[in-house]
Design the sequence.
C-alpha cells in the first residue's frame, strides 16, 4: 500500500522520538512492500520561532491531504512560565484537532509484565490491566469562550457540550466495547456539572441500542481513585475532554512509564497519532527520551491503515526490547540505552535482523546492531 504521512516533530523530545518511529515505519515498508511518503511540517514553539504562528496554514493543508499524521510533542518552558504570552505552542495542537475534527482521542492502557516493578501499584493489582480511554477532544472547557477581565483580577472558561458531540464519540466507544469485554464506564461529574448531566442523559438514551454492553457511571473523583485501587474493573472509559486529559496521564503510570503510552485521534478526516507524553524539555536533544510511546502510536497508525499484521510485529518488537531490558533512562536510570538505540533495535527486530538469543554483553551503547 502507498500512504502519505504528514510528520510533525513539534517541540522538545518530539523530533528524536518521532525519528525512531520513522525508522520503524521504513523497516515495515521494506519488509511488507509498502510505500510510506513523509511530508515534514511545523507546529508548536518550533513553528512560532520559524514562522510566527503555532500552526502555519500549510501544515493544516498537508494534514488534510494526507492519509495520517504522526505527531511528536508540543510545549516549551518559555511559554509555560509566562502566563501573559498571547501566542502559545499548544494553540497549534488545539487548532489542528479542531481543523481535522479529531473528536475522539483513544488511549489504550496496557501493563507490561517486564515493567511491573516500576509501577507504584502492587504486582497483584497489575496483572491483566487492559483498558482504553475514549477522551472527547474537540469540545468542553478546552474550546469554550474564555476571558480575562481588563484589570486581570478575574477569568473564565466556558464548558459547553452538545448532544451530537456526545453521541458521535459515544457511538465509537460503545462499538469498541462490543469488540472487547463489553463494558463501558462513563466518567463525569454529574453531581455538580450540567454538562456532565447531559453526557449521562445522552449515554443512558443510547445504551439500549448496545444492549450487550454493560454501562457503568462513575464520578471523576471516584474514577481517579478506582484507577489506582482496582484498575482491572475498566474496559472502555468514555469521558469529556479535560477529565480524559487528567485520568489518562494518571492511568499511564500503570504501564510503568508515561513514556510508553500511545494514542490515536480520529474524527471525520485524517487521523493523528501521538504519544501521550509532553515535550519533556529537560531531555530534549540528549537522546534519552523513551521512543516507545511514539513507536506504539505508529503501530496504531498501521492498524488504522488496515495493516494489523504489521502493527502486531511492531508491538512484538517493543515487548521484545522490554523483556531484554533494552530500555531508556525513564525505566532504568543506571543500565539504560539511548533513544536512537531503542529505535534501531525495534527496526532491526521488525526487519528480522535479530535472530536467536541476545548476548547482552555484546550490545554497546549506541551500537544496537552488534548483537
Ligand atoms: C495531551 C496534552 C495536550 C492536552 C496539551 C499539550 C494541549 O496534554 O494531548 O494530553 O491537554 O490535550
Ligand atoms: Mn495531557
Sequence:
Amino acid at each position: 500500500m502507498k500512504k502519505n504521512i504528514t510528520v510533525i516533530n513539534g517541540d522538545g523530545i518530539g523530533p528524536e522520538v518521532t525519528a525512531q518511529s520513522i525508522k520503524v515505519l521504513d523497516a515495515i515498508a521494506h519488509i511488507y512492500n509498502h510505500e510510506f511518503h513523509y511530508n515534514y511540517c511545523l507546529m508548536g514553539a518550533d513553528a512560532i520561532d520559524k514562522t510566527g504562528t503555532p500552526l502555519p496554514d500549510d501544515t493544516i493543508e498537508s494534514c488534510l491531504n494526507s492519509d495520517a499524521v504522526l505527531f511528536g510533542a508540543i510545549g516549551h518552558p518559555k511559554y509555560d512560565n509566562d502566563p501573559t504570552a498571547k501566542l502559545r505552542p499548544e494553540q497549534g495542537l488545539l487548532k489542528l484537532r479542531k481543523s481535522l475534527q479529531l473528536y475522539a482521542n483513544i488511549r489504550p492502557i496496557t501493563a507490561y509484565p517486564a515493567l511491573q516493578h516500576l509501577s507504584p501499584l502492587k504486582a497483584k493489582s497489575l496483572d491483566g490491566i487492559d483498558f482504553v480511554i475514549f477522551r472527547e477532544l474537540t469540545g468542553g472547557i478546552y474550546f469554550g469562550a474564555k476571558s480575562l477581565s481588563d484589570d486581570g483580577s478575574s477569568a473564565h472558561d466556558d464548558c459547553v457540550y452538545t448532544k451530537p458531540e456526545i453521541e458521535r464519540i459515544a457511538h465509537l466507544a460503545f462499538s469498541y466495547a462490543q469488540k472487547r469485554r463489553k463494558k463501558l464506564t462513563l466518567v463525569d461529574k454529574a453531581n455538580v456539572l450540567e454538562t456532565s448531566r447531559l453526557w449521562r442523559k445522552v449515554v443512558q438514551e443510547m445504551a439500549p441500542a448496545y444492549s450487550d454492553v454493560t454501562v457503568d457511571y462513575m464520578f471523576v473523583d471516584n474514577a481517579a481513585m478506582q484507577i489506582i485501587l482496582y484498575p482491572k474493573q475498566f474496559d472502555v472509559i468514555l469521558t469529556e475532554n479535560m477529565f480524559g486529559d487528567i485520568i489518562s496521564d494518571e492511568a499511564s503510570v500503570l504501564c510503568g512509564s508515561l513514556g510508553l503510552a500511545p494514542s490515536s485521534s480520529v474524527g471525520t478526516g485524517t487521523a493523528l497519532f501521538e504519544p501521550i507524553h509532553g515535550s519533556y524539555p529537560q531531555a530534549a536533544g540528549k537522546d534519552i527520551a523513551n521512543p516507545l510511546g511514539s513507536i506504539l502510536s505508529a503501530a496504531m497508525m498501521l492498524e488504522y491503515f488496515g495493516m494489523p499484521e504489521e502493527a502486531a510485529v511492531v508491538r512484538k518488537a517493543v515487548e521484545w526490547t522490554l523483556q531484554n531490558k533494552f530500555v531508556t533512562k525513564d525505566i532504568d536510570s543506571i543500565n539504560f540505552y539511548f533513544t536512537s538505540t531503542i529505535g534501531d533495535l525495534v527496526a532491526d527486530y521488525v526487519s528480522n535482523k535479530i535472530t536467536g538469543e541476545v548476548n547482552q554483553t555484546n550490545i554497546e551503547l549506541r551500537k544496537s546492531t552488534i548483537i
In short: The pocket of manganese (II) ion (ligand 2) is lined by residues 245, 249 (CB under 6 Å). The chain is about 40% helix and 15% strand. The mean pLDDT is 94.
